[in-house]
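Protocol step 4 of 6: structure prediction from sequence.
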Amino acid sequence: MDFHEQLQSDLIKSLREKDDTRKWVIKMLKSAIQLAEVSKGSGLTQEEFLSVVQKEIKTRNESLADATKANRPDLIEAAENEITILKTYLPAQLSEEELLSMVREAIQDAGASAPKDMGAVMKLLLPRLQGRAPNSEASRLVKAELTEE
């Protein structure tokens, strides 16, 4: 089942269960996917779909940070619920150790030795992650590893 069919199936299920939050999040995700497909001019690949989901999660995380600053528990809870729903469309997330192992492998493959080589490492690493870890976390680990050496 491709992601379009999965989203449609989940949307129908949320309508039957009268789960308004899930329904809203799925509709927003479908809109973001449609916008990306129109922008690209063709259908999205699985990797591009995962990228859209990650972008939506990042947006919700920014909203969560703003709600926390504003001390708005209602908005905090809503953002957390939306993030939880969106994460169900990502593959199983890598543990910190697995991600660190992939980072070290990418650094070795790129022959990187200094922070200036970070772009080359990230170019190798991001396709390997394919939604299994946040890009910001991968970036943080790459930077840490390159400044240590």
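Step 5 (inspection) to follow. The chain has a mean pLDDT of 89.
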